[in-house]
Structure to design on (694 residues):
């Protein structure tokens, strides 16, 4: 190694670090701590984290079943609506809190050497805790609607995994960009709004013409929610493969997810050594 | 007693001279880019795609080379903005360096400040666990050492109190207690001892002593020359990102004082010689009654305020004094030779060791000592003065609220 180049260790902190256990340990600790602090001091505590999706559900349910008479032909529409809201909330919570996560952890980043990826990962893990709690409520609704348990419910696990990959990748990308460009945040707020209506949450894609439905399925969230409807709520509903018009085409939303995930990791890893300086 | 101490000191120096280097830094440079106008929004970036290439460079570290031996207590001193903290952050691996090489042959503590990430809304219990994990302990280790941490901080009664209800001193105690539990061969410490009450400061100093004896390597950033002289085997003086001096602690602390107060940047130049004062204060310290140098003392003990003076010209009647200032910079006590009469003439080249003994009835606090030499009556011209060259911590079982706690005798007569 020539004297003019910095030793690898001193190019600054890396994204992942050299000790995977420390990465996991720290991510879990920060997420658990945030979870504890989130509703700290409020009388209802953790119940608030259930309250938000439930209230949103209540409003949407009222508007779309009582006011505009929508979703009448969708079987178990209320359960689908709630499940879709909960899944989408995970994505929007992770990404919107993730955008500013590095800025919020400024003191830690400036005073301690630790794998930088801990910060966005802990945000995603925190949201995952909330998702777990919210899914309990979803399943209560599922049972209350008289839907019988089926093995296909297990498909929820890979579906959630896909959503986690998509959310984490987006969060890594956005948080690293936000350090440099502060208007990432308002832009992302708008994008989230658009995504909410572009994803089949208050409607289902099965009611679209086939050509439109196939294009909509390129959105990984749409694919996940469509498959969830089939696996969890209504076996008669089309699977994601049917909706997109062939199993091979499912590679499109999968590829989108993989690209977002890889891009997030790549950008974050590239930015990691300088994050502390650029904050 | 003092013979054995200096014997030990010599042994330590011999051992350190032979020890391998645990940190080596060669020609390390680090610059921060400060854009003239920071383009932090996309619109500006789109509107001025080429304008962003103009920026100022702040050379925070410039060609810094040094090495720290295994087991050494190494001080880094310098004024604000001299690059001390940047150097520490580069060592800790928080910032990357632009040029040069750094090698560290040992486990390094990953933090540079105490109590980082403490959350005021969580209890001390939660904070200690989180902080310990942040600093590198595993969850199990953190739980196992929890009691030790709380015991060292003497906060057993406040474990379940939220941190926002802690005083800043208690915060630091907790932070320090966690930090010393971290398994590291090399500790990086940035200005820890400025807060905390006298007895805890003494504990911190004691703990430093123990770490030293345990063979840990400590890199220590401070403004407190007393601590540098007391603890450090060697020290480095930084100024504007460059190394100005590396050497023995007394030598470096003298240079620090010179840089800080602007005199004698280089004493060798003849122009300076002409304006040079008649004498120079080389160092100052506090001794106990056995002649051992101390940094803290219990109230009521006999103390000796000492200074070493070197005369560059003849002086018939110098007055030696050491001014004690407390935390809030009030002058509490001036130990001076004036009441003892003129000490007699000194010739150029003479060196004098001045000891002013006093029974220490100062209130418990931390004192900064400023030694000075003035001329005799009537003008009291200051010949040489070294601001805050040494420090003393006074401990007492009680705090009365007075600036001194002169001994009293009680007599009560019933009427």
């Amino acid at each position: 190694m020539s004297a003019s180049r910095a030793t690898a260790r001193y190019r600054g902190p890396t994204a992942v670090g050299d000790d995977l256990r420390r990465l996991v340990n720290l991510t879990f600790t920060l997420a658990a701590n945030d979870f504890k602090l989130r509703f700290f001091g409020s009388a209802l505590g953790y119940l608030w984290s259930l309250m938000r999706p439930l209230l949103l559900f209540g409003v949407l349910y009222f508007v779309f079943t009582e006011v505009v008479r929508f979703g009448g032909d969708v079987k178990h529409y209320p359960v689908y609506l709630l499940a879709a809201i909960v899944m989408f909330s995970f994505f929007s919570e992770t990404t919107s809190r993730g955008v500013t996560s590095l800025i919020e952890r400024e003191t830690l980043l400036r005073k301690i050497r630790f794998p930088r990826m801990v910060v966005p990962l802990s945000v995603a893990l925190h949201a995952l805790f909330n998702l777990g709690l919210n899914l309990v409520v979803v399943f209560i609704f599922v049972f209350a609607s008289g839907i019988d348990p089926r093995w296909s419910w297990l498909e929820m696990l890979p579906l959630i995994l896909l959503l986690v990959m998509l959310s984490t990748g987006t969060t890594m990308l956005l948080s690293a960009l936000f350090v440099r460009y502060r208007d990432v945040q308002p832009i992302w707020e708008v994008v989230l709004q658009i995504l909410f209506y572009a994803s089949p949450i208050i409607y289902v894609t099965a009611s679209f013409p086939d050509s439109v439905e196939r294009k909509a399925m390129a959105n990984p969230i749409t694919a996940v929610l469509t498959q969830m409807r089939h696996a969890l709520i209504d076996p008669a509903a089309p699977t994601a493969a049917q909706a997109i018009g062939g199993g091979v085409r499912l590679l499109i939303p999968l590829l989108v997810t993989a690209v977002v995930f890889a891009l997030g990791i790549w950008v974050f890893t590239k930015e990691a050594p300088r994050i502390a300086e650029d904050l | 007693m003092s013979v054995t101490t200096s014997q030990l000191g010599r042994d330590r120096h011999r051992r350190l001279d032979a020890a391998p280097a645990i940190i080596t830094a060669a020609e390390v440079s680090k610059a921060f880019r400060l854009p003239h106008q920071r383009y932090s929004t996309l619109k500006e970036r789109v509107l001025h795609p080429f304008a962003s290439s103009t920026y100022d460079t702040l050379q925070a570290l410039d060609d810094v080379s040094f090495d720290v031996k295994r087991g050494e207590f190494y001080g880094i001193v310098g004024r604000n903005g001299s690059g001390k903290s940047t150097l520490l952050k580069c060592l800790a691996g928080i910032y990357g360096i632009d040029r040069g090489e750094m090698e560290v042959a040992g486990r390094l503590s990953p933090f540079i400040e105490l109590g980082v990430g403490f959350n005021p809304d969580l209890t001390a219990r939660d904070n200690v666990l989180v902080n310990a994990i942040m600093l590198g302990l595993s969850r199990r280790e953190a739980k196992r050492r929890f009691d030790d941490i709380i015991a060292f901080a003497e906060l057993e009664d406040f474990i379940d109190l939220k941190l926002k209800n802690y005083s800043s001193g208690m915060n630091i105690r907790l932070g320090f207690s966690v930090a010393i539990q971290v398994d590291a061969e090399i500790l990086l410490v940035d200005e820890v001892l400025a807060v905390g009450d006298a007895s805890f400061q003494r504990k911190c100093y004691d703990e430093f002593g123990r770490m030293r004896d345990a063979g840990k390597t400590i890199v220590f950033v401070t403004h407190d020359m007393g601590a540098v002289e007391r603890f450090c085997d060697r020290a480095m003086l930084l100024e504007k990102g460059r190394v100005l001096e590396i050497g023995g602690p007394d030598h470096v602390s003298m240079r620090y004082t010179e840089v800080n107060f602007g005199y004698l940047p280089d004493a060798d130049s003849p122009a300076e010689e002409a304006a040079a004062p008649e004498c120079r204060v080389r160092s100052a310290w506090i001794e106990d009654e056995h002649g051992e140098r101390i940094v803290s003392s219990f109230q009521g003990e006999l103390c000796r305020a000492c200074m070493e003076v070197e005369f560059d010209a003849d002086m018939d009647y110098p007055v030696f004094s050491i001014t004690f200032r407390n935390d809030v910079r009030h002058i509490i006590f001036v130990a001076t030779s004036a009441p003892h009469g003129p000490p007699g003439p000194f010739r150029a080249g003479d060196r004098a060791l001045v000891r002013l003994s006093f029974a220490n009835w100062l209130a418990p606090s931390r004192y900064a000592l400023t030694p000075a030499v003035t001329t005799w009556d009537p003008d009291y011209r200051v010949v040489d003065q070294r601001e805050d060259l040494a420090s003393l911590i006074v401990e007492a079982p009680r705090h009365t609220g007075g600036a001194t706690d002169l001994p009293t005798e009680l007599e009560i007569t019933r009427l």
About this structure: DSSP finds eleven helices and 18 strands in chain B. The mean pLDDT of chain B is 81.
